[in-house]
Amino acid sequence: GKEIKTDGDSFMVxxxxxxxxxxxxxxxxxxxxxxxxxxxxxxxxxxxxxxxxPIEEEGPDGRSDLFGATVILASRIAAKAEGGEILVADTxxxxxxxxxxxxxxxxxFVAKGFxxxxxVYEVRWRE
Length: 127
Prior knowledge:
- With 127 residues, the protein is of the alpha+beta class.
- It has helices at residues 18-38, 69-80, 90-95; strands at residues 2-7, 10-14, 47-49, 55-58, 64-67, 86-89, 103-109, 118-123.
- Strands 3-6-8-7 form a four-stranded mixed beta sheet, sandwiched between helices. The chain has a two-stranded antiparallel sheet with strand order 1-2.
- The relative contact order is 0.18.
């Protein structure tokens, strides 16, 4: 993936494929969990993934930035996750069909700024 920007302790990363994004999220969660088993201060991260066509603009520093509903919804989905969870939009789950990932239905919610409910799924990454 490509790091787009950081904001406080959050990261926005863009991927060429949905399965690569989910694989990266799973790899990161497993690494954080392994580290945290013996750490004095565990690292617990929540993640939210969405797929779509964001608006891309070049920022004043010459780096690309992403905007729009796709990005906003990913942020809203991440906010619904608990520490150690990866939540994804139904779009992500559908695009990952047949790729070997396991998902649990977490139901629908209406994200702030959106009219239609979105169904989210938890990626089951723990073995």
